[in-house]
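Contributing new complexes? Match this layout with KG4.
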Amino acid sequence: MLVLGIETSCDDTSAAIIDSEKGIISNVIANQNSVHAKYGGVVPELAGRCHIENIHEIINGAVEKAKINLSDIDLLATTQGPGLVGSLLVGVNAAKGLAFALNKPLIGVNHLEGHLLAIFLQEEVEFPFLALIVSGGHTDLYIVKDFGNYEILGRTRDDAAGESFDKVAKMLGLGYPGGPEIQKVGESGNPAAIKFPRPLPNKKSMDFSFSGLKTAVRTHLEKRSSGKIEKLPMAHIAASFQEAVTDVLVSKAISAAKENDLNRIVVTGGVAANSNLRVKMTEAGKINGISAHFPKPVLCTDNAAMIALAGLKKYQRNPDAGNEYFELDAKANLPLTEY
Ligand code: KG4
Ligand code: ZN
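Output block (do not edit by hand):
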């Protein structure tokens, strides 16, 4: 089967063609970084407008790159939520129009299920496994028991990991998105220079909290500029912040895996592209007899190939779902368990 995936949940416009046997044929992604950079974060109204401007070109690009015709597509899949409603609506409506015109089934996909399954675009991981989704909007721990069978263990109580990277980058005067900027600046810094807090709200709970860490960086910067503490280079601050986030993510994920007798961890979502996190999770996994798996960076950040795959798996579980798309609507909040 040839599946067209469409993703517009936040600030990336993406369309992809996957083949149920051969995997990814094309995966076209247009980011809006230059539009949002001066605000240090995504401006929802601007994001929706950019998706409208880009969506046709991106879908046509994915089809052309795959060297197929639109009529060759057997199934469509689009992100239904969670995300920014004005952004989601663009993809949902483009997909509905295309499905109707082509007379092909369309599946609404939960964006988080896309992140959970992205790893299968590059390798098979045996069920069950622990999954850590770390993105701009989510920091969630799941037990993935099978396709379509997910149990949530914990989530962030305040900022998501990616959001904390973006906010701290803004404080440091770096660009957007903040994660790659902090990684780059931090490369020449000492991760042990500043001992920022490692917030673990409750040792027993699998929840995360990152707002205290963000405040600690702000306090450090205030003291730094008023001359109360030594003026350490920005590279040290970036590296030390990144190290604190990494420590928290690694320690929670490893203890969740051990507690649930899981010896495989999949780390996914934009922050999973972070090289420090990839190295530290792999090392901690080795010590504990746990294998760590990461989609390649382009499949960690938002992309339509993961949506096409999640749509295909959902269609295979329930083909009738593909004909019910007239009722399909964008949902800003769409928990994975309700789906
Ligand atoms: O999954 P994603 O593309 O979009 C959402 O669903 O939110 O994740 C975007 C987030 C941003 O907060 C960005 O700063 C972060 O992922 N990110 C990174 C890196 N690349 C992207 N964070 C840390 N290190 C990176 N290399
Ligand atoms: Zn995402």
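Reviewers usually confirm one structural detail per submission. For this one: The pocket of KG4 (ligand 1) is lined by residues 10, 135-137, 162, 165-166, 177-180, 183, 269-271, 273-274, 301-302 (CB under 6 Å).
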